[in-house]
């Protein structure tokens, strides 16, 4: 999952504004021949100057990362005035630097990049900007804002805070409530931010105590093994927050194998499978907190606007902003139908 800056820009919900104003595309792992009205450019957003966008995305070794790539490609297809040069997805820093240098040499109009490592790719971002090619930095942030024209990404602290607040509201009438946390990879800043947000939210509920925390690796296998350890160590608790819906698949397997159902579970990121389970209302999973991969579709919108010298419809500014932070909405049975189209596989 992505690393994130503490920088806070404009706040946009996951259902953000219209095509010229960053309407996000529905997530699909299979390109659809017939796009819904939500995925088409707005009717008044007429084709303009042709823009070639270079896209350097991640290796799709995780459901969320695959959704990033698909959102970008699907969004570009909705524009008759956009051509996208797509590099082979890579989580190797050296390989991705080489791919971006190739895009620079091809003189694309704009580059959209989700860096394998923001710090390590800062210099190639600077190289593109100095070559006169605007960079849209997606999620994992470069070390300096000089390396990008606009950053767009998720809110890890807000994700943790909203998860904690949701759990707090569900348990606020329960005395001596106990919660546990299945975190992501501890050496990532995003994991620390999610945990900090969660802990800060729980401070508002003095009846709740976090009794255990285990870190996993954002994989099904790690989710299952680490959740099994939590279940063995804690004979009873009232709520679980799991940072990632992919590792949550394994966590739910461990929960089923242990025959435990005395607690509610809140997931993270917003996978389609998680939303389907929430809608069914069976089992412990009651909600998931979004980290929307639709940010990649918004990045394409931004890149097109940059290439055409446009601002964002609905805002007074004639230039696009330098930073956009997406909102981490909580999805439960009450609003799951609204967010189901954004769920990733």
Automatic annotation (TrEMBL):
A single MF term (Gene Ontology): carbohydrate binding
Stretches with biased composition (Basic and acidic residues): 31-48
Region span, Disordered: 27-49
Residue stretches making up the Periplasmic binding protein domain: 53-310
Keywords: Signal
UniProt-listed Gene3D superfamilies: 3.40.50.2300
Pfam families in UniProt: Peripla_BP_4
Subcellular location: Cell envelope
InterPro entries, sorted: Peripla_BP_I (IPR028082), SBP_2_dom (IPR025997)
Predominant location: other
GO cellular-component term (any): cell envelope
Membership in a protein family: Belongs to the bacterial solute-binding protein 2 family.
The protein's name: Sugar ABC transporter substrate-binding protein
Organism: Streptomyces sulfonofaciens
Upper lineage: Bacteria, Bacillati, Actinomycetota, Actinomycetes, Kitasatosporales
